[in-house]
Amino acid sequence: MLPDRVQRLFEPDSHSMQLAGLFDAAGYELYLVGGSVRDALLGRPHDDFDFATNARPDVVKGITGDWADSLFTAGELFGTVSVLKDGHTFEITTFRREVYREESRSPSVEFSDDIETDLSRRDFSVNALAVRLQPGAELPELVDPSGGLADLGSMTLRTPQEPEISFGDDPLRMLRLYRFSASLGFAIHPSAEDAVIEMAGRLAIVSAERIRDEFSKLMVAPAPSASLFGLVESGLAAEFVPELPAMALEQDPHHRHKDVLAHTLAVVDKTPPELVIRLAALFHDVGKPDTREFGAKNQVSFHHHEVVGARMTRQRLRALKYPKQVVESVNQLVYLHMRPHTFKDGWTDKAVRRYVRDAGPLLDDLNLLVRCDVTTRNEKLQRTIQRRIDDLEERIAELREKEELDSLRAPIDGNEVMKYLELAPGPRVGVAMNLLLEHRIDEGPYTPEEAYQLLDAWVEQGAI
Hints:
Elements: H1 4-7, H2 15-25, E1 30-33, H3 35-42, E2 49-53, H4 57-64, E3 70-72, E4 80-85, E5 88-94, E6 96-100, E7 107-111, H5 115-120, E8 130-132, E9 141-143, H6 148-154, E10 156-157, H7 163-169, H8 172-184, E11 187-188, H9 190-199, H10 208-219, H11 225-234, H12 237-240, H13 243-246, H14 260-270, H15 275-283, H16 288-291, E12 293-294, E13 300-301, H17 305-319, H18 324-336, H19 349-359, H20 363-372, H21 379-402, H22 414-421, H23 427-443, H24 448-461
Parallel strand pairs: 2-5, 10-11
Antiparallel strand pairs: 1-2, 1-8, 3-4, 4-5, 6-7, 8-9, 12-13
């Protein structure tokens, strides 16, 4: 007997049963499959529904064309037709089997004729569940050839076939294993972990874009630290983000510094589940292994690790094909995350303006990252650092009341500079505008008349 929340999907007037009626009338089978079944059984929200059928894509288009508001066929090559109806998306995929060729980055798809074969090639048993949609049936029929229902009950991630077969068919499933562990809170079956350790190198045939998308889903899971540590322990992280295992610094008994990886994972869990700040938390100390030095009395230091780390972050995120805006935002957060610690004796107006200007729209995320970066067990030190950020935010609020802090600009623009100095567009105009902006940051608001006086003085000094 299926739970009530699942039964509701099969009410006669539901979209699911409307589709089932269309396929049944045409002589084809239709099943609700995969994550939509899993989430329904777990009581998790799931807005998009996945279906499987023995009908080929051309037939699916013919069956659903008049019923749907619109069809999308971008995935038709892989057997998928996306059906849109009343704001909902229904992914309908022909039963299939797919295998990666040894040298290929894309799966080679073959269609099959039965639901059991289709389910057997899915990633994990909890995603290898199907419910037969059959008009007039007294009860929905649950198809569970690999024990996925039992694995849901025990909260275990296991592959339907031998993990070596499953991961060999699609190596990205090794990363999905840790992503689902993070998002569902499920334990990983030992056989799957062992297979990842043996097969981690096979991830190299998967495209950077697919790895990026799966990794991003892992990063915004409620608490990804355990899965991130699993990626390091299994050797999988070394295949696409080698900076992560590099942070697991060996601890010398004479140098009792904190393990950088353990600290990093703690910071990641403390940040909200948003991609940019989570990536910044993951990479904020990535420069420490390359900047580690031992000084007097065996003190450890990581001078300018934020500068080195920002460069490393940019390179890694570009390699993973992240969008430019994500790369630049994460890079800037990594670069600036140590800035508040440099002002232990209070914030001058000049320092506040420069901090706000450099952080730009990332200001709130930056302050939050700095707060989350405090993982020490020393309560006195915790209070000291948090009070420092409180003071900074108070100073920002005070200065906002006095002046236009969030859009720092000179009182005259480039056109006015060119007209006054009789300059054509070129580098000298840029130099002048930069000097005017720096004066605004250093001294606060000033008038256009004062700006022209500054231009005169700088011309006399040869600065422009």
